[in-house]
Amino acid sequence: MYERSGRLADQRGFAPFTDEVVSEATPKRVRAVKDGEPVLDSIQARLAWVEGPTPQYAVPAADVDGQRVRFGDPFDDDRLGTVEPVGLDGGRPERAHGLRVVDPPPSAPGLEDHVLLAWDAVDEWYVEDERQRGHPRDPYHRIDLHTSSREVVVDLDEARLATSTRPLMLVETGLPVRFYLPPEDVRSDLLEESSTRTRCAYKGQARYWHAHGRGSDVEDAAWSYEEPVAAFERLAGWVCFDQAKVDVIVDGEPLGEG
Which of 103, 132, 161 is the last residue of a domain? Predict the structure, then answer.
């Protein structure tokens, strides 16, 4: 019933949907910090889509602290050409820490002598003076949040987990349509808080709940953002169910997995 948002972007070949390595300059200052001190600081960073829909920051090697970062022996990468692994603070250079692009193929222009540092290799990332969490934000990624009067019901093994006629409908590029429900419309007695936490660069940190039906339990069937980023503060405390794990029915029709 509801297709993923972003089909047109797929047809038009926007960066997140192409099979090629794509990069473009960003005007934003980018910094990475480890143990309280900067590892890189650049106003000439690029966003690089190397594999999958999530971009990485690529910064000129000259903007990386040479006292803290060193590079290992070059090797050939299928997508980036000749690269060197990154080592931090005297550690052994490893691909998992990042790569310096030495000789990119024609399919990866603009990345020569740039360093793609792994997001988790440092403690903190900053864009201008704001801390960036989760991963770099994609300038082609869009999220629309709409007040709705659709009737949304959620079932698990004939147990009704939620019923609402005042959901928030969230449409996000490349992802299934989601409906967030006010906590008052959710059977909290059929949910059990999970230890799972995830972070979305656009919405914030999510906490999860297991769902209990009649005879079966489903792990991490629902989530919510207790303190979402300011742009999506309306989501605070509202609950979204994963339509791949439980039955989400919208105006009598299954929502489906996208």
Answer: 132
The type of residue at 28 is K
Q: In this structure, are 101 and 154 located in the same domain?
A: no
Dig out the tokens for 152 from the structure.
């949304």
What are 152's strand-pairing partners?
164, 250
My answer on whether 88 and 158 are in the same domain is no
| 115, pLDDT greater than 70 | yes
Residues of the domain holding 239: 143-254
Contact between 168 and 146 (Cβ < 8 Å): yes
Enter the tokens of residue 203.
């919405």
For residue 195, count other CB atoms closer than 10 A to its CB: 7
Range 140-170 burial, b when 16+ CB lie within 10 A, else e: bbebebeebeeebbbbbeebebbebeebbbb
CA 119 to each of CA 86, 134, 148: distance values in angstroms, whole numbers, following the listed order: 13, 8, 36
Whether 185 and 245 share a structural domain:
yes
Model pLDDT for residues 169-187, shown as the tens digit of each residue: 999 998 999 999 999 999 9
Predicted pLDDT of residue 53: 85
DSSP string across 184-199:
GGB-GGGEEEEEEEEE
Compute the Cα dihedral for 143, 30, 80, 73 and give only its sign: negative
